[in-house]
Amino acid sequence: MQGLSRDLGEAEEGVNATWGLWSIDLMPADLGSCLTLANELKGALPSGASAEARLITDYMLGVTQAYRGALEDAAGFLQSVSDAYDPDLSEQLKLRFGM
Questions:
Q1: E strands, the chain, where?
Q2: How far apart are the first and last CA of the chain?
Q3: How many Cβ atoms sit within 10 Å of the Cβ of residue 41?
Q4: What's the chain's average pLDDT?
Q5: Whole-prediction pTM value?
Q6: Are 46 and 11 within 8 A, CB to CB?
Q7: Which of 7, 37, 67, 91 is deepest in the core (most CB within 10 A)?
Q8: Can you tell me the distance from the alpha carbon of 38 to that of 90, in angstroms, rounded to the nearest whole number?
Q9: Three-state secondary structure call for residue 95
Q10: How do the domains of the chain map onto residue ranges?
């Protein structure tokens, strides 16, 4: 997923697609797949990725780790999301990720 997006010069679209797949896997609690998707996304984010992309990636990792019961791991990611929160991003996040 990330490779194709990167090859097409559309890394941000890879974030959107990964979010969709992650959301689908989260519904039946396929947490192994959720963790794999989120970790792959984290590793594939380009250095110039948007604030939204970085925030949603940490959110995905934090929620997945929390649902897995790995609360110490979740705390770091979710704290990062909280620290990075910017009201100006709120509208972008609603439009892009429905949150």
A1: none
A2: 22
A3: 24
A4: 85
A5: 0.83
A6: yes
A7: 37
A8: 21
A9: helix
A10: 2-97
Helix (H) or strand (E) holding 83: helix 71-84
Residue 56, phi then psi, degrees to nearest 5: -70, -35
Residue with tokens 């990330």: 2
From CA 80, how far away is CA 7, in angstroms rounded? 29
Amino acid at 22: W
d(CA 50, CA 63): 20
User: Can you give the C-alpha Rg of the chain in angstroms?
Assistant: 13
Q: How far is CA 53 from CA 18, 24, 34, 50, in A?
A: 11, 18, 16, 5
Location of structure tokens 């890394």: 11
Quickly tell me which residue has 């609690």 as its tokens: 29
Share of the chain above pLDDT 90, in %: 54
> Counting beta carbons within 10 angstroms of the beta carbon of residue 88, is it exposed (0 to 12), middle (13 to 18) or buried (19 or more)?
exposed
Tokens of 26: 């989260």
